[in-house]
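Hi D.,

Good news: the full-assembly prediction came through. Inputs first.
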Amino acid sequence: MNLTMILLFLPLLLGALLNGIAGAKFKKSVSALIGVGAIAAAFAGALTMIPAVNAGNVNDQAVWIWISAGGLTVEAAFKFDSLSMIMALIVTGVSLLIHIYAVGYMNHEDERGFSRFFAYLNLFVFSMLILVMGNSFLLMFVGWEGVGLCSYLLIGFWYDRERKEGDSTWPAEAAKKAFIVNRIGDFGFLIGMFILIATFGSLNFDAVFNAAEGAPDAPLFLGQTPLWWACIAMFLGAVGKSAQIPLYVWLPDAMQGPTPVSALIHAATMVTAGVYMVARSHVLFDLSGAGGIVAWVGIATALFAATMAVASFDFKGVLAYSTISQLGYMIAAVGMGAYAAGMAHLMTHAFFKALLFLAAGSVLHALHDVGDIRRMGGLRGKMRITFVTFLAAALAISGFPLLSGFFSKDAILVYAYEHNMAIFAIGALTAGLTAFYMFRLFSIVFMGESRDKDLTEHAHESPPVMTIPLIVLAALSVGGGYVFLGVGESGPFYHALENVFHGEHHAASFFNPAMLIGTALGLVGIAAGHFMYKGKSAEDLQRANPIVQLWRNKYWVDELYDRAVVRPLKWLSRSALWRVIDKGLIDGAVNVSGALMNAVGSILRFTQNGMIQTYAAVIFAGAVLLVLLRLF
Amino acid sequence: MILVSTIFLPLLGAAALGIAAVATAKAPDQRLRNEGLKIGALIVSLITFGLSLHFVFNGGAAVQHEWLPSIGSSFHLRIDGISLWLVVLTTFLTPICILASWRNISIPDSGQRDAYPSDEYPQKEKGAGGFLALLLVLETAMLGTFAAFDLVLFFIFWEMTLIPMYFIIGIWGSPGWRQTFLFGQVSERVYATLKFVLYTMAGSALMFAGILYIRMQTGTFDLTAIMEYAANTGFGGSAQVWLFWAFFAAFAIKVPLFPVHTWLPDAHTQAPTAGSMILAGVLLKMGAYGILRFCLPLFPEAAAANADIVSLIAVIGILYGALVAMVQPDMKRLVAYSSVSHLGFVVLGLFAGSEMGTKGAVLQMVNHGIATGALFMLVGMLYDRRHTRQIKEFGGIAKKMPAYTAVFLIITFASIGLPGTNGFVGEFLILAGSFMTEGREVYAIVAALGVILAAVYMLWMVQRVFFGPIKVKANEALKDLNAREMIAALPLIAAVFWIGISPTPFLDKMDADGSISNLTKPGTAKTAMVEPPPPMEQPAPQLSTPSEMDEDH
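Then the structure:
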């Protein structure tokens, strides 16, 4: 495993350091070579895991003792099982394609920006691998915050930009928002770890999971067990990172980052970390009974975000809400206990959502970064490859039979159908909505006639360095489900995960009510989305009833948070704490006591005015007083 | 010998520097003379740093000489696990402070300073000799405070830190006037330095009374003997509570804890760069160190009984400091309030009653010294260039100063406590250590909210200072870090990652002689709250067995 670890981590770290420190002096081709070479090596490293992991259990590989204090020892050590292997393969594989794409997409940057971009991107994959490979919750948290840092740096990549006309935010602001909202989730993750330390004395996965059975049942708080609270607290971390209600607000804004970043971090990999975390901790979630809350948060998010995707006019905005919705799907799956199905959807989603974003990037590239779909239309003729690959991805996410999304979505819906009818109903409705908004987008952008001739006139297909990743991802989006997941959950993916999620695997019959309902709704959504919006003018698109208006304004959640949290907090800090307590009360008291001392001093000064006559008079008065006291 | 030389070498250097400065006062080339003085001070501080590494390899040192037998005081210095890293932090930061003040030693008159770009020679460089000599005197005082093992000696060193700091802020501080209620217009820096000294003195007076009482009870000023007394006999019930609060008050002001923190933003803001760095980096640690050295081992029952109140104060400080930091318009003031928040974490860890929390607190003292020292240095570099610290005066400077921005971001994330940096390890151990102690969970949870707020105030400042387009014209001409500034920043960055990636050797050294694990025997804090511990069965802190230490005389 040594070679694997070296290949996975070392080139990425070196790549990040080289491009980060000296990159401004490199030619762009050198920076690109370093960046892409590093991720290619990491992908090779992930591939070397396959034979070893398939052959049997590999022990955790420790590199050094990281923290050791007061009975808690945390090693920098990595886990090699089929779950970490699958995550590593998805992460490095999709990353490799997106790195290649970015060589073309970021080409208009200068040397400094270009190399900085690849340094951040390599650092991101490095952190993501720590997240998925770490053998303890704390190491997972290292990667967890590490990807958060890279997300911050990459959303704010164009840090000097101001708010663009029509946008609600700008890169630097969106980056800060993403980091802070994620920090709220990380707060939960931290608390969860504290509970685990107090309960088990360890954060090591194996140690915690093996001892979980015997965890104390005594309620910790509000009648719930420590295990339940640990799960709920850590799930708050997942709510942040995987953009669930109520912390999803950072992800739409994160689209301010360059499109390859949106594809890699904010669609395919980082945001799925919450799903991975729940799946990794499945022992705890099963025992604690916290899964119900997880499932409901997930499915609610899935539906809620889908409605906003229906109304958005921003190309990447639609995809962002779609990502939130699909993440909700995965969270719902792992919450119900369908861990393998959730992971399956994580994988297929990585393929088709990365593809959707990269195709969007290809369009934006051609249209000089204009993302308003009301100005697009009829691009199918000008960008053949982008058009075809986008269609493949749109069909895949819509659950079109035998494409990748069909298999994974089906697995989740079948499980829900058997375990929780309400979640199934919402899930199926969301599946229909997903198909609807995706083909609404598809029709508006690619079909019909251009709505802004000046803009689309010079649109042209992207260079091969960008279209080849599109084609590879399209192949995966189309065939990935059949090859990896297989009909009736018989594919190698489920096979590999069997020894992680013991006994969860079940082979559903291919034709079952859940699949038929889900697929039928998907097909209806495709048809409705396509025909309702084909050839509509910009003005017609604009028209909306009150409900759609509500969706278009994103339920005014951002405004609500601003009024309910941000502004009161600023007011409290500035007006109450700083001006009144700090400057007014405390410093006031300090200054007054200083003045008081001075006043006392100036009174006492009269007693020492150096005039003998005064002293004599006081002595005399004192003597008289003493005599009088003596007398009476 | 090494221990004594390490502590007093800076003082000797200061004397030599003073003589040299006076002797060359009329030198024809003042610039050459000043450069020579700076190089001299730098060399002295570097040798001191080299000497102090001896303690890291040998795990400590001790020396005891007869001094004032008539009052029961001896010249007893000792470096153990608790003081080891604070001593090294002091010797590590001092040369960096000298480097950081290379081009900004000047005495402002009432108005604004003359602006000069940081790599040019200041036209108004004034009092370089005195400034550097005071800085070295301060170093000796700080090292002495951390090493003194005799209450009289400790008190002398403790008070001795005030004098150089008083002059450093009062003479070389920022320009500007403030209107006061009674004294009319006074110089900002004089107001700040007086406030700093008087606040500290108020606490010291209480501590002094406590020291005298201890002498009456135990018949000695020697800390080893007093610790033995505390462990075996113990200070009586209510007397112990009074003593605890007398010492705690002095240390709480120094830390500073809410609500006795208001000297800190003023002192930090008005001090010159090196002054702020030392103030934040080391002087504040003296308060936390005092709590760990005196309050916890000498008055264990009182400390345990009041742990909840202190933790509450600490947690209030964490949130209060963070919230007030968020709305500061002045960068230095923002960093100053962030110190209130960070030091709240340290005190929370000290009273966690677990080894994890205490170790985390000691590590966090070092971390805060590095990160906040670095932040003050970086803000100082910006001040050197633009002569303002107002956040609204900046914006978009990342384009002009990419290296500076990179360094600032690294330190920012260390301050926020990102894993991989030193800040994370300390905060994590403090919070986990607090959470592990029964009844203390809620403090840990509320304190963890401070982790969110840290991201809010730091990243909001970063956004307003570094990102966006350049709006103020003067920022167009900003120059990136020069070689000297880079050299000053690199050791700090190295320390951030070194401690962040491999904290275990640091944590182990703290406790190599059992200084910390003896303080926090499992459950000590908890049981003590219910019943007083049986005095005779408590083993004396291992500090009382000097034979185990490296006696180097």
